[in-house]
Design a protein that fits this description.
- It is built from 6 helices and 48 strands.
- Strands 11, 13, 14, 17, 18 and 19 form a 6-stranded mixed β-sheet that branches. It has a 5-stranded mixed β-sheet with strand order 2-9-8-4-5, with no helix packed on it. A 5-stranded mixed β-sheet has the order 21-28-27-23-24, with no helix packed on it.
- Strand 27 and strand 28 form a beta hairpin.
- The protein is mostly beta strands.
């Protein structure tokens, strides 16, 4: 009996205490509600627009947006999910720090206080940048992500405003944001915006999206500068394309530096600067100094040219000598214009064979091809790159010079005829010439001249046709390897360094001529082998008139054999009008 009475008293006291608590709290919750498990929030601090999760029991089923509501310090939140044990809401835009409450009709349950945090930028890096540069924003309370990808989503998308332009960042964390500065941005403030959408008065979705904006941090945008190229050997022409350089190099301190050393300025205009990599250049940062400010544009790599192979190592004049390697640079880059073809100045760029300048045929960064000149000698093959050192203020030039790249040894071969047979033959007969040092047969022709690539942008009036002064005739003398029967070229069947095989031409037997002259019998005359080439002119330009090495094998007689026999019935079966309806 005493035990039963004690239990009854304990129950009465418990109910009384719960009633007292409810009375003091000013709420009308029932005893059943008072003993329910408290509501847990996924976070006790949040930013507007973030998703907040409420975990508990007894939420019941969702009936309507009017019946089921959640408020943050009295401001209704947008309910995204409502189940008996879990509720998800969007933290409303207009909410301030205060209690979170769950309303189910007339019932109300408290989930405790929620602190509303505002985004704040601590710093941006860099504070001065080009458009297209990656901007890093550090700070606090940016949120875990930018939200949905679709900017038209009903809840909005967190973003960043850069100089009046809205940007969707590449990376978004609660304390760091990375974005690419758009090309249409202007100098101005950078601010982080957090999107949020409150429910309509009836609790449904959604009021227009609004933004909580962080503090603003200034950003200065400077014109971008394109560097072309960012690597090369000494003498390389480098061009800076941009804006705001000034119409001229105004101050002595205005300069371009590579690895801390000044370069030679060839042209300085408001939108372009042209300079050349100096002789003593070393790899390092490319820096523009202008009006007392320094700006690093790129890392410039100074390459060292290197020859890897050369072929052939021995050959007669007129041979195409092929040099392979790396970092030879460009051939015509000594001018002051941004584009090499505009002025085509080669400077002292050249290749020498035994001390004699060779005729440049092709000059690429990894390959140089030259014709062995007429005056070539046995000796070293050397590539020379033109470069200089700047004077005070980057003007040209304290010193002019070249960088020498040794390729290898070259032996000049002298063609020698040892024998030929037969010494008489009919038309189309085969004649074999044996010897050594003939080189290779050249299938190229110079219908213009080797300066075509330099003059292709100008009207030509200097192409030599046959004889000087002659008009309306075909181009002549276009070959540089040929066999002549009494002055008339033969058809070459094969040509090696030790043997040449040709066929007897027809024209000598039939007669040849030109305007005002005709020779009706040239059947007997000398059999000649020729190789031609040129020399570079004293001023370094191309080229002298073609010069020849001529080897006479001996006399040769063309016999009246192999003449085609005319068909007397040809026109009976092939009348002139057989293939026309005219």
């Amino acid at each position: 009996m005493p035990i039963r009475l004690s239990m009854k008293l304990f129950s009465i006291l418990t109910i009384f205490l719960l009633w007292l608590v409810c009375l003091v709290g000013g709420t009308n919750i029932t005893i059943a509600q008072a003993v329910q498990r408290p509501i847990e929030l996924s976070s006790r601090s949040s930013i507007p627009g973030a998703t907040l999760v409420l975990n508990g029991k007894g939420f019941g089923a969702f009936k309507s947006t009017q019946f089921n509501r959640v408020t943050v310090n009295g401001v209704s939140a947008l309910v995204q999910r409502w189940e008996t044990e879990i509720i998800e809401i969007k933290v409303p835009f207009r909410a301030t720090s205060g209690p979170v409450e769950v309303l189910m009709g007339k019932k109300k349950r408290s989930a405790g206080p929620l602190i509303i945090m505002a985004p704040r930028i601590a710093a941006i890096t860099p504070t001065e940048a080009e458009r297209g540069t990656t901007l890093e924003i550090t700070g606090h309370h940016f949120g875990l992500s930018a939200g949905a990808r679709d900017p038209n989503t009903m809840f909005g998308v967190n973003d960043v405003v850069v100089g009046g332009v809205v940007v969707r960042p590449k990376r978004w964390k609660d304390d760091k944001i990375e974005l690419e500065i758009p090309p249409n941005a202007e100098s101005g403030d950078v601010a982080v915006r957090l999107a949020s959408s409150d429910p309509l008065p009836d609790g449904s979705c959604c009021a227009p999206v609004e933004y909580v904006v962080s503090n603003a941090v200034p950003l200065k945008l400077i014109p971008s500068v394109r560097v072309d190229p960012v690597s090369g050997p000494v003498g390389t022409k480098v061009v800076l394309f941009g804006q705001g350089f000034g119409n001229a190099k105004e101050l002595v301190d205005d300069a371009v530096l590579i690895g801390g050393r000044p370069v030679t300025i060839a042209q300085w205009k408001d939108d372009v600067i042209v300079f050349h990599v100096p002789l003593d250049a070393e790899s390092g940062p490319l820096v523009l100094k202008h009006q007392g400010r320094e700006r690093m544009l790129a890392q410039f790599t100074v390459h060292v040219p290197r020859a890897i192979s050369m072929s052939p190592a021995s050959a007669p004049i007129g041979t195409l000598l092929r040099i392979k390697g790396e970092h030879f640079g460009a051939y015509s880059e000594s001018g002051s214009t941004p584009y090499n073809f505009m002025d085509f100045k080669t400077g002292e760029n050249r290749v020498e064979i035994g001390g004699v300048p060779a005729v440049i045929y092709r000059w690429n960064d990894e390959r140089i091809d030259v014709w062995v000149p007429f005056s070539a000698k046995t000796g070293k093959v050397v590539i020379y790159r033109s470069a200089n050192k700047p004077n005070i203020g980057g003007l040209c030039c304290a010193e002019r010079g070249t960088q020498a790249i040794e390729v290898g040894d070259f032996t000049l071969a002298t063609p020698v005829i040892e024998s030929y047979e037969p010494r008489t033959a009919g038309l189309d007969a085969t004649v074999t010439i044996k010897g050594r040092g003939f080189g290779t047969f050249l299938v190229t022709a110079e219908h213009a001249d080797l300066g075509l690539n330099q003059k292709s942008y100008k009207r030509r009036g200097d192409i030599e046709i046959n004889e000087p002064g002659e008009q309306a005739t075909v181009v002549s003398n276009v070959s540089r390897t040929e066999v002549l029967f009494n002055g008339t070229a033969a058809l070459v069947q094969s040509w090696t360094d030790e043997e040449i095989v040709v066929t007897v031409p027809h024209r000598n037997l039939y007669g040849i001529g030109k305007r005002g002259e005709f020779f009706d019998n040239l059947a007997t005359g000398p059999l000649v082998v020729r190789r031609g080439s040129w020399d570079v002119l004293p001023d370094g330009t191309c080229c002298s008139p073609k010069k020849w090495i001529t080897l006479e094998a001996g006399p040769f007689t063309i016999e009246a054999k192999g003449l085609p026999v005319p068909d007397p019935d040809f026109w009976n079966y092939h009348p002139p009008d057989a293939s026309t309806n005219q």
